[in-house]
Amino acid sequence: MFTKRYSKTVDWSETYRAGSLGEWRSLYEVRAAFDFLLVIVLLGFLIAAILIRKRGMKRGIVLFVPLVMSLIAYTLSNFFSAIIDCIYLTDATVKLAIELVFILEDFTDLFALCTIMYLLYWIINHFQMRSTGRVSDGLHLFHGIIFGLLGVICVVELALYIGYTVTTYEYSKWSVPWHWVQCTRRLAFFVASLEIVIWAFCLVVRTSRNDRQAKPTALVFLLASFGFFAMNVMWAIITIQWDIIVYLGYIRTHPRWIYYFQIVFPYLCMVVIYLGMLLSCKQLASLEGVDGFDIQTPRVYPTTTYQNPYTNSLDVESRPMVRDPSQELLGAGSRPIHEAGVDHRFRL
């Protein structure tokens, strides 16, 4: 964060310098490189989603609008982060209004996380619809409550961060509440991602047994869910070890390697998450209209029945006629010749 004055009002037109990075310069260089690289990758996913939708490849793509919104939000988040890194690396003199970029970065990052949760929940609902023809009211209510709680936590965190940013004294009254709400958000997303990855494993097992056509889609969804879970496991470990235990011990230091790890590992996870969600939405669209979970259901084929006109129709109802060439030759001479209007019935 830029050097701030110790006052309670903000002069957004005043200029500040980012300051020398010193030994941390390599960290900002790595983060800027990965930010720009992720922006390029996400733009590729965004273009692919638009092309799939426009050209109608295999019936297009489901959940197109939330997927595009999530891609745009996370692309902007990394773009804003790259701008901040470049300002630090160039030691530029900027106005305090640059703090608005920090706010936009935090907003787009939280919005992208919420849209990822929304997409993963609705992909689960699509599998449930394919399995049972309906979504369980209890499951829908449970996911709605969890998503609502996560949304409220994100809104509170953003509000506290804005309050912390617009105050110019270093240890503002907003910093401690913002810190604990951020810890709560990371742990809450970890628990929610654990439930999603469990669902993904169950869907893979179910499709392997009953719906082989949807199994590749379930595997891709498992890949996306596991990437989201792995990223949240990382943030949960960092939060517990260094943001809670160390913070309560009043030792606010982190191992240097952890800063590099929390740059590279989330980058890999986000690539896996968006690639998995894009493929899942595309494959789910191609599966729409195809019956699922019916492989073990016995199929009924139409059979031709023969009815003797001199017998009661109730005695031979639905009796299949099996053709045997040898029997037809032997019985050709004794077969009665019927008049027109013989009742030949076909049971469909």
Automatic annotation (TrEMBL):
Organism superkingdom: Eukaryota
The protein, known as: Uncharacterized protein
Keywords noted in UniProt: Membrane, Transmembrane, Transmembrane helix
Bilayer-spanning residue ranges: 32-52, 64-90, 110-127, 139-167, 187-205, 217-238, 258-279
